[in-house]
Design brief:
- The complex is a heterodimer of chains A (114) and B (114).
- Chain A is built from no helices and 12 strands.
- Chain A is an all-beta fold and 114 residues long.
- In chain A, strands 2, 5, 6, 10, 11 and 12 form a 6-stranded mixed sheet that branches. Chain A has a 4-stranded antiparallel sheet with strand order 3-9-8-7, with no helix packed on it. In chain A, strands 1-4 form a two-stranded antiparallel sheet.
- The termini of chain A are far apart.
- Chain B is mostly beta strands and 114 residues long.
- Chain B starts with a strand and ends with a strand.
- The chains are: A mainly beta (114), B mainly beta (114).
- The interface between A and B is medium-sized, with 21 and 25 residues.
């Protein structure tokens, strides 16, 4: 079975400060890891992914995430937060192979204060 | 929202009535999914399809059925709606395997069962 934990329901950060949204996972085999963002009244949008290669992956809007195999984590980061980054963020994981069914975390609401 | 159209976008119905939600894609992707999104639960998979007339259950399939008679259309039916099915429903498609099967989401259908 595969699972994802996002331990924080909400993260508050001041504009211009660095932000981190945490994600840990459990899966058999090498993980496929994803971050998605959801703005109000919209569907989820893909932000970035890790499949293989460098542990630090870069995505849209200046976001990046670090894959840590020993800690089974895939935290989302950004060096300098913007008010427009305020949204709901979802981490997702799936295992390798033919089943293309990811498991999503419960989501973390990011609030960036001016 | 990546060539995915959900209809209707909003619906209010009464307990016990049948409801069908439609998802239409223009991407010709094989895999399609139906999720529901509820506060505190994140995204939960209802059903998915891996081809025309090929469907399977997700983790919260009770009370829902699906059909896929064409590659581009994936229908979700609530045979007899209940108040517990009040939710926001998202359709998704899965992109190419070489890209890690990133999911692309529709804009969602907000369903209220009174």
């Amino acid at each position: 079975a595969q699972s994802v934990a996002q331990p924080e329901d909400q993260v508050n950060v001041a504009e211009g400060n660095p932000l981190t949204v945490k994600c840990t996972y459990s899966v058999s085999g090498n993980p496929y890891l994803f971050w998605y963002v959801q703005y109000p009244n919209r569907g989820l949008q893909f932000l970035l992914k890790y499949i293989t290669g460098d542990n630090l992956v870069k995505g849209s809007y200046g976001f990046e995430a670090e894959f840590n195999k020993s800690q089974t984590s895939f935290h989302l980061k950004k060096p300098s937060a913007l008010v427009s980054d305020s949204a709901l963020y979802f981490c997702a994981v799936r295992g390798p192979g033919g089943s293309y069914i990811p498991t999503f975390g419960r989501g973390t609401s990011l609030i960036v204060h001016p | 929202d990546a060539g995915i159209t959900q209809s209707p976008r909003h619906k209010v119905t009464e307990t016990g009535t049948p409801v069908t939600l439609r998802c239409h894609q223009t991407e010709n992707h094989r895999y399609m999914y139906w999720y529901r999104q509820d506060p505190g639960h994140g995204l939960r998979l209802i059903h998915y399809s891996y081809g025309v007339k090929d469907t399977d259950k997700g983790e919260v399939s009770d009370g829902y059925s699906v059909s896929r008679s064409k590659t581009e259309d994936f229908l979700l039916t609530l045979e007899s709606a209940t108040s517990s099915q009040t939710s926001v429903y998202f359709c998704a498609i899965s992109g190419p395997e070489k890209e890690g099967n990133i999911q692309y989401f529709g804009a969602g259908t907000r369903l209220s069962v009174l």
